[in-house]
Amino acid sequence: MTFVITEACIKCKYQDCVEVCPVDCFYEGENCLVIHPDECIDCGVCEPECPAEAILPDTDPAGAEWVEFNREFSAAWPNITAKGAVPEDADDWRGVEGKMEHLSTKPAVQD
Q: Is residue 105 part of a domain?
């Protein structure tokens, strides 16, 4: 089992999950995070920390479809180990459905 990030993270990117991850398996895109499914140790501490409820186990049918998405982008985006700036309009996007059209495939610009 692994945990994955779903489309609910797009445009929210709160990053509370990053702060609690004991193995630093989060990767950052311009407007979304992903979890590297092969690095995740399945501890589950990130799931309740996500205000957008974007983290699910891959054993959940809604989470299973996101494993390859997380794998693909964790290979392309930089690792993130500390919470950064949350988008100013994150709360406006929280709970919005159908956000895939807003996904940026670009990696985050790190300082």
A: no
The SS3 call for residue 61 is: helix
Distance from the first to the final alpha carbon of the chain: 33
Position 59 in a domain: yes
What is the residue type of 66? W
pLDDT tens digit sequence for 30-69: 999 999 999 999 999 999 999 999 999 999 999 999 999 9
Structurally, the chain folds into a number of domains equal to: 1
Run of H or E residues at 101: none
What tens digit of pLDDT does each residue of 87-108 get?
999 999 999 999 999 999 999 9
Domain for residue 47, yes or no? yes
Distance CA 35, CA 39 (A): 8
* Residues 6+ positions from 84 with CB-CB distance below 8 Å: 15, 28, 108
